[in-house]
Write a structure and sequence with these properties.
There is one protein chain. The chain has two domains: 5-111 and 214-221, 3-Layer(aba) Sandwich (D-Maltodextrin-Binding Protein, domain 2), CATH 3.40.190; 114-201, D-Maltodextrin-Binding Protein, domain 2. It has nine helices and 14 strands. The relative contact order is 0.20. The two termini are 13 Å apart. With 227 residues, the chain is α/β, with parallel strands linked by helices. 29% of the residues lie in helices and 26% in strands.
Length: 227
């Protein structure tokens, strides 16, 4: 299995050659979930904004190619990549063994822990004893969903999967969820510092679960593309 030209070229600092850049399509389509601020979201004008967006735009500028952003539900990103509807994924995508069976990844771009969010005053902690009988929201297709299903669902925790993060936050603030599990930065910067998150808090410590809650995030692309 060869490393794709696209994945190698998109990485900052690899020093891809002009010949490698020439092998890229004229327009590179990058898929992202725009409900995951501060990594990826849309502003009031409908423009794509966030850390992942800035990262992708910088890569495209260095490659001197046109890149277009494609908004998608998180769990549709890998199927879209495999169906050739997009050329790459930059969407706080964790590098896991399971995903590496389907797509190729760049080297780790950054890391992020996972944290619970719960209402201020709630005694909830990220333990089975505390969560038993409670409703916990997770993003469908995420490593947080995989962890919650493996460790909580069969032991009395009601794990509820959502198509996007905005739906999770909506149900959390409305009291339909007792807690939500997501990236720490998405929780603290993308939600708790916003007006909608003012009644919420981060309980206890982050979860660091090897091989399930991966700490490395990378760029995803097809395992093979034409050279």
């Amino acid at each position: 299995m060869k490393k794709t030209v696209l994945a190698l070229s998109l990485l900052i600092g690899l020093g891809a050659t002009a010949a490698s850049y020439a092998a890229l399509p004229q327009t590179v389509r990058i898929g992202t979930d725009t409900t995951y601020a501060p990594f990826s979201s849309k502003d009031a004008k409908g423009d794509f904004v966030g850390f992942d967006i800035d990262l992708g735009n910088e890569m495209c500028q260095r490659m001197q190619v046109k890149c277009t952003w494609v908004a998608s539900d998180f769990d549709a990103l890998i199927p879209s990549l495999k169906a050739k509807k997009i050329d790459a994924i930059i969407s706080s995508l964790s590098i896991t063994d399971k995903r590496q069976q389907e797509i190729a990844f760049s080297d780790k771009l950054y890391a992020a822990d996972s944290r619970l969010i719960a209402a201020k005053g709630s005694p909830i902690q990220p333990t089975l004893e505390s969560l038993k009988g409670k409703h916990v929201g997770v993003l469908q297709g995420s490593t947080q969903e995989a962890y919650a299903n493996d460790n909580w669902r069969t032991k009395g925790v009601n794990v509820v999967a959502y198509a996007n993060q905005d739906l999770i936050y909506s149900d959390l603030t409305a009291g339909r969820l007792d807690a939500a599990l997501q990236d720490e930065v998405a929780a603290s910067e993308g939600f708790l510092k916003q007006p909608a998150g003012k009644s919420m808090r981060l309980p206890a410590l982050p979860l660091r679960i090897k091989n399930t809650l991966a700490t490395g995030r990378g760029l995803g692309c097809a395992k093979t593309i034409p050279s």
